[in-house]
Amino acid sequence: MKAKDFKQARKDLGLTQRKLAGELGLSKKNGDVYIRKVENNRCDPSGLLITSFSNYGLLKEIEVIILDDSITNAKKIELILGILLKLNK
To answer: What is the DSSP string of 53-83?
Structure first.
């Protein structure tokens, strides 16, 4: 994942650098500094950061599906299974 893609994905989720750091369980003291360095291409993201961030995004997708009353339960199951299959890749 490139720095600009990482930054855009964070913004798409509506998270600040500090909020993302907290959501991913990074240090409260300087987790946001690490996120900023990754976004500014001053350091490479760890594999764990990329995996955690990707999984966080997928879980948010699932949450949106579950809370959408306009989607039938059968369709919700289909959509969620599709997302879960992404996790196994």
So the answer is: HHHHHHHHHHHHHHH-TTS-HHHHHHHHHHH
Give the C-alpha separation, 62 to 80, whole Å.
6
- What is the per-residue pLDDT across 50-73, written as a single tens digit (0 to 9) for each? 888 888 888 888 999 999 999 999
- Residue 25: HSE in the Cβ half-sphere, 13 Å Cα cutoff: 6
Whether the predicted model's global pTM rises above the 0.85 cut: no
- Chain position carrying tokens 């949450």: 63
Query: Tell me, what CATH number does 61's domain have?
Result: 1.10.260
Q: What are phi and psi of 70, to 5 degrees?
A: -80, -5
Reading the block at residue 85, the tokens are 């299959």
Lookup result for tokens 């299974």? 81
Structural domain boundaries, residue 20: 3-87
